[in-house]
Amino acid sequence: MRKLFQIIYQYRAFFILLLLQLVSGWLIVNHNDYISASYFNSSSSIAGNFYNNKQSVADYFELSRVNQHLAEENEALRNSLAEKQPTVDTTQFLTPVYLAGQYDFTIAKVVNNSVSRFTNYFTLNKGSNDGIEEGMGVVNSFGAVGKVKSVSKNFSTGYSALHGNLLISAILGEKETLCTANWDGKNPSKISLKYVPRHIEVEPGMEVFTSGFNAVFPPKVKIGEVETAEIKENATFYEITLTLSVDFNSLDYVYVVGNKLKQEKDSIEQSITVIND
Amino acid sequence: MINTLNIKQIVIWLLFIVTQVLFAQNLVLYNKAFCFIYVGFLLLLPINISRNYLMLIGFFTGFVIDVFYNSLGTHMAASTFLCYLRPLWLNAITPRGGYENIENPAVKDLSLSWFLAYSIPLTLLHLCIVFFVEAGGFHMFFFVLLKAIGSTLLTVLVLVIIQYLFYAKGRYA
Description:
The complex is a heterodimer of chains A (277) and B (173).
Chain A: H1 2-10, H2 12-31, H3 45-83, E1 103-113, E2 119-124, E3 137-139, E4 144-151, E5 156-163, E6 168-172, E7 177-182, E8 190-194, E9 207-210, E10 222-230, E11 239-244, E12 253-259, H4 262-276
Chain B: H1 4-22, E1 28-29, E2 33-34, H2 38-44, H3 51-69, H4 74-92, H5 112-135, H6 141-166
Antiparallel strand pairs in B: 1-2
Helix pairs in contact in B: 1-3, 3-4, 4-5, 5-6
């Protein structure tokens, strides 16, 4: 026994290393891939405030670009409003819940963002006090941006679409082929599109939107346009690269999308899977 | 425990962390080379520091970086391992005169070539761990290795520049 303690004492540096590595390994496995209200990420109050102060200085250098974006978005919204002038008096119809205000949008400022790592995250300056919840989708005027990962009172951290583990349910072209967008970890302006079957004709320039099937993003939020599409001799699915419509290098203001029917949808879908079992 | 040397190290630690999070985080060349100058703090700690303290310092430093990088565990594991290997590597590349009268393994006390031989392998190993853990495996081996090599060169270059600027002879001695 005495000898055992002697050995442990003699190699104590190695045992401390082992212990610390086990702790880090446990954290890597358990705290990175799950949606969780974790205190140890950039949505914590210390890191969030730090990034918020940093961004409030950096804001001054981005004013003209942000103004440009907002003006362009206003223009697009005004145009779509002008196109959709109601011809019938819609007030006399009873609008179903799922059409009127299923989604609500909360504006938030991106205070920190990365694009060139394998797992990219952004930090927003809104948290649970402003009604943001884990799992909500994040979009801006150009298209889909990501998904909220964890929320504190005043800040939230989200997976950017440039995160290898984030799968976005998408539809391709006018035929609305269901497929999945996922980042391969290399180029921050490209994303790859998976599971497009052989019989679909894919051409460069086709537009890809979110499907709206998984209650994170609303339907028809743009993801990007097809840049290259290849299919190998024996492959079942195409290999497609998209040009992202969002410029992740210059994220400024984003909308966090709340889905009022999410719970209802999830619970009804869960009951279906139970029957399947 | 608390004496002027420790306070000086705490101030340097704060400076390195703040610089890393505010500036170096955004310093990315060609989407390949990242700057992780906080590694420099671990590399430049005094030589005679106890190995166990060193590992705990590395562990905590990695933890703080991870909180800001949203990568809990990754930098912790890498920094701890770096701190475990540091004394071994220091022993392996002892200069001819030994480490007598030398406080920090820095350019000012030893030579530039010695510092490069000291810092490049350790930084490369550190960044390999960080990037391979982040990539989640070896499926993009050469791409990740390229990133690690590029980042190592950038990080060491910035560290050398920092030492010529701030660790100049006689300023803190």
